[in-house]
Structures are given as structure tokens and as C-alpha cells.
Design a protein that fits this description.
The protein is built from eight helices and eight strands. By secondary structure, the protein is of the alpha+beta class. The protein has three domains: 59 residues, Winged helix-like DNA-binding domain superfamily/Winged helix DNA-binding domain (Arc Repressor Mutant, subunit A), CATH 1.10.10; 69 residues, Diphtheria Toxin Repressor, domain 2; 74 residues, Ferrous iron transport protein A (FeoA) (SH3 type barrels, Roll). The strands form two sheets. The protein has a six-stranded antiparallel β-sheet. The protein has a two-stranded antiparallel sheet with strand order 1-2. The model has no long low-confidence stretch (mean pLDDT 95).
């Protein structure tokens, strides 16, 4: 039986290993805000369950079984986020925490009903791809707004959901997934990046611009 904590670890390993390299215990400890000793203890348990491949001091990688569980939890999470936003009227800065609590407990039947009710969506409110039922994740080609050269027109693909204050601020100036922006100028050192959204111009700090992912419009 896989516990909620184990699911959280598998999900964290998935997110930390997007470059296909093994994930260090220190990286997991930072993401999960716990001690390295706690991480090592849990990783050893998951290794015994064949959910991860692990060798001391060499990092950890998900097995096929572990990846399947991680993607199922992520699918639950992102479907719940979208349901909360579109059906229950939650703002996009509040859905992440609610989904974190619910992703572990909904049944497969409930997941299927949410999916059908929403019209089989492919993106959550923040623009992140929703894994399919069979574990396929759409590959989204994007880059940080911070790394975008001035003079380009871009479309927001997704926004990091890890900081609710950032989401609340971006909502006030109208920056959401699928919105198009003109990148005007970028001041040296720490910015800001100046963008135009419809008829309004905004200056975005490096902290903000590093949480917005864009693609050419």
C-alpha cells in the first residue's frame, strides 16, 4: 500500500528529474522541506518496493512503476485544480493547496467523471499539461520570459503555481496562460522586463519573469 507521503516523494522525484539525471537527496530535501535523513529513509523504503532505483551517494531515479504512480497523482492534482477553478469558482492562486489535499484520496471513478465533465482537458489553470489516463504527458516547448529577447511577441504557455502571491499579482495585470505579450525592453542586471499587454505596459522583476514560461506567438 502506497501512503500519501510516498506519493508526495514520487511526485517530487518526477518534478526534480526533468533533465533525466538522477535526483540527489539534498534536492529532494529542499523541495519537500525536510531533513536529508528523512529523505534517505523514505527512499530506501521506496527502493524496497521497486518504485525507485537508488544507490547511496549516487542519487535516485523513478522506476517505470514509480513513474506511473507519480503521473497518476499529478493527473489527479491538475484535474482537481481545473475543476475547482472552472466549476467551483476558485481563483487560480487557491487551487494548488486544495488539490494537494485531494489528489491522494479521489477514486478512479471520480477522476473519470471530472475528466468527462471538463471535456477531457489537456491543461490545468496554470497551463501545465495534464497527463493522460495512460501516462502520456504533452511536451510543451517554452522558455522563461526572463530569457526572452526584447522585440518579440510571445504567448504565455504556463505560470509556476508554487507562489500564490505571484499568481494573485499576475491576475491583477491580466497575465494568464494563452495571453499574448510584447517584450519591449529588459533593463540590465536585475531587470525589470517591460512588457505590453493589450494597451498597458508593465515592468516585471526577475523574480516574476522567471515564473512565466512563454513561446513565440
Amino acid at each position: 500500500m502506497i501512503s500519501r507521503a510516498m506519493e508526495d516523494y514520487l511526485k517530487a522525484i518526477y518534478f526534480c528529474s526533468t533533465d533525466k539525471r538522477k535526483v540527489s537527496t539534498s534536492a529532494l530535501a529542499t523541495r519537500l522541506k525536510c531533513s536529508a535523513a528523512s529523505v534517505t529513509n523514505m527512499i530506501q523504503k521506496l527502493s524496497e518496493m521497486k518504485m525507485v532505483s537508488y544507490q547511496p551517494y549516487q542519487g535516485v531515479r523513478l522506476t517505470a512503476a514509480g513513474k506511473k504512480v507519480a503521473l497518476e497523482v499529478i493527473r489527479h492534482h491538475r484535474l482537481i485544480e481545473l475543476y475547482l477553478a472552472e466549476v467551483l469558482g476558485y481563483s487560480w492562486d487557491r487551487v494548488h493547496e486544495e488539490a494537494d489535499a485531494l489528489e491522494h484520496v479521489i477514486s478512479e471513478e471520480f477522476e473519470d467523471k471530472i475528466d468527462k465533465a471538463l471535456g477531457h482537458p489537456t491543461r490545468d489553470p496554470h497551463g501545465d499539461p495534464i497527463p493522460s489516463k495512460d501516462g502520456v504527458v504533452e511536451q510543451v516547448s517554452s522558455q522563461l520570459l526572463w530569457d526572452t529577447e526584447p522585440g518579440q511577441r510571445v504567448k504565455v504557455e504556463r505560470v509556476s503555481d508554487r507562489d500564490s502571491e505571484v499568481l494573485r499579482y499576475l491576475a491583477t495585470i491580466g497575465i494568464f496562460p494563452q495571453v499574448e505579450l510584447d517584450v519591449l525592453t529588459k533593463a540590465p542586471f536585475n531587470g525589470p522586463v517591460h512588457v505590453r499587454l493589450e494597451d498597458e505596459e508593465h515592468g516585471l522583476s526577475e523574480q516574476l519573469a522567471r515564473q512565466i514560461f512563454v513561446a513565440p506567438a
